[in-house]
Amino acid sequence: MDYLERFTIPIKGMNIGVHEYQFNIENEFFNHFEDSLIKKGEYDVKVLVDRKERIIILNFEINGTYDSKCDRCLTKISIPSLIDYKVYLKYGVVVNKKELDDVVYINVEDSSFNLSDIIHQMIILSLPMSNTYDCENDPNPKCDFEMLDYLENQNIIEENEKDTINPIWEQLKKDFNKN
């Protein structure tokens, strides 16, 4: 059995009402997606499937962490993420391209639906712009304080260099303004 098959839910024959599914995501999950931005992570996924007569509503609650290097000090850290998202499964073909953000069209003959792509996309889209965390308020910070001190000193040196007037640039400015 393919690893990602475990993220398949039955849709044909499902009774109308709410059904709950839970999945655990580990490192192996991310290895099944080519060029995934996450290599190591652990997530708990809870999916509430609200089966209606003509539509299926998937309510995702995803909570977990992924491992990354801190963008400030390059230490390995675990970055938390919490995702709450809703996806609608509709029977039929695409009617309006603008409608596709959270709507997935499925075939009437489909007996099951695999959630792995949607889960992976939601996790990847939840990644922060920078891989940092609030180490100042962490009782056991993982930060490399030597690196942070070095960077702070480099910033001070650069600020001092900005304040220093370079005579070569001053001469060039004078020469440029003459013409």
Description:
It is a single chain. The chain is α+β, with helices and mostly antiparallel strands and 179 residues long. It has two domains: 132 residues, no CATH class; 34 residues. It is 26% helix and 34% strand. The chain has four helices and seven strands, in the order ββαβββββααα. A five-stranded mixed beta sheet has the order 2-3-4-5-6. The radius of gyration is 25 Å and the shape is elongated. The N and C termini lie far apart (77 Å). The mean pLDDT is 84.
Low-confidence stretches: none
Radius of gyration: 25 Å
Domain count: the total is: 2
Q: What fraction strand? A: 25-35%
Helical content, roughly?
A: 25-40%
Mean pLDDT: 84
Task: Give the biggest sheet.
Answer: 5 strands, mixed
- Helix/strand/pairing category: alpha+beta
Number of contiguous helices = 4
Alpha-carbon distance between the two ends = 77 Å
List keywords for this structure.
4 helices; 7 strands; elongated; alpha+beta; 26% helix; 2 domains; 179 residues; 5-stranded mixed sheet; two-stranded antiparallel sheet
Mind sketching the topology for me?
Blueprint: E1 8-10, E2 17-25, H1 27-31, E3 41-51, E4 55-69, E5 76-91, E6 103-106, E7 112-114, H2 116-125, H3 145-163, H4 167-178
Parallel strand pairs: 5-6
Antiparallel strand pairs: 1-7, 2-3, 3-4, 4-5
